[in-house]
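Tip: read the tokens left to right.
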């Protein structure tokens, strides 16, 4: 018997994934494996997967397959965050950083995983605590200026001591995984997924200090909303999760190995970054 006894599927919310789902179902039936899908997604495309809730899928699947882009992959990773269930990303449409294979490669990828011919790459997460709320993200937590309010004025405290203050449209706290997302678009650096730490980047900063700061994963990080700040929204992986006001403090913690991503040795992180960002070597002749 192979590694895969139960497969869980997480689908792109809009793209038609039925043919790819059918491929997974055929592969699984040939090996007497079960296929699970989230109830709303199974109903939307009318596939043969067994409809279950998110908690049951996370508890029973041996492998999660994400069919979509990086957003779908992040949903799948959050669904099994804190467990040992690995996630295989399958590109559906645009190239992503996190996906490992394209649709035509999926059957061979499943064969390799079932035969244990794969490795697992751990990805850290970030947890934000504010008031009575606690939110987890795999990419980033963002303190964002609310429409009609003043800019975000945020003091960064490290190990309980004030370090720097930003006045900006937003302040992004990203994991290495999230370094190529919102933080990167704001001018932050690309960080290897093998690094452990948190990257703090201001978006459209209005103050003299406008650089990103990369902190060790073990250092305590707090973001204090300063008295002259406007009210701020808090987003976790792009989802609105709360609001804070001047005087509030957001405690931010790195979560080591929050999720696990399947790697089959086809491409490296840097090759995927080159393709996604259309990077070329600076030493290339004119």
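Filled-in amino acids:
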């Amino acid at each position: 018997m192979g590694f895969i006894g139960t497969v869980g599927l997480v689908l792109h919310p809009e793209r038609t994934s039925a043919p790819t789902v059918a491929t997974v179902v055929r592969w699984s039936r040939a090996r007497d494996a079960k296929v699970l899908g989230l109830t709303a997604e199974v109903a939307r495309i009318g596939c043969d997967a067994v409809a279950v809730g998110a908690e049951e899928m996370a508890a029973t699947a041996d492998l999660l397959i994400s069919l979509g882009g990086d957003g779908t992959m992040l949903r799948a990773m959050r669904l099994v965050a804190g467990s040992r269930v690995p996630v295989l990303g399958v590109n559906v449409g645009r190239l992503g950083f996190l996906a490992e294979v394209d649709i035509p490669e999926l059957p061979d990828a499943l064969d390799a995983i079932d035969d244990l011919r794969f490795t697992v790459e751990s990805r850290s997460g970030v947890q934000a605590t504010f008031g009575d709320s606690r939110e987890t993200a795999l990419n980033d937590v963002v303190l964002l200026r609310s429409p009609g309010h003043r800019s975000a004025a945020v003091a960064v405290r490290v190990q309980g001591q004030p370090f720097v203050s930003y006045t900006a449209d937003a302040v992004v706290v990203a994991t290495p995984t999230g370094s190529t997302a919102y933080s990167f678009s704001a001018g932050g650096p690309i960080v290897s997924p093998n690094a452990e730490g948190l990257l703090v980047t201001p978006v459209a900063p209005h103050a003299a200090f406008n650089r990103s700061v990369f902190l060790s994963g073990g250092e305590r990080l707090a973001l204090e909303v300063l008295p002259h700040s406007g009210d701020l929204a808090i987003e976790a992986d792009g989802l609105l999760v709360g609001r804070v006001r001047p005087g509030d403090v957001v405690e931010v913690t790195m979560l080591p190995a929050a999720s696990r991503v399947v790697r089959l040795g086809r491409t490296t992180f840097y090759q995927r970054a080159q393709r996604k960002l259309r990077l070329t070597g600076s030493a290339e002749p004119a």
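The radius of gyration is 20 Å. Residues 6-118+264-277 form a domain with the Rossmann fold fold (CATH 3.40.50.10330).
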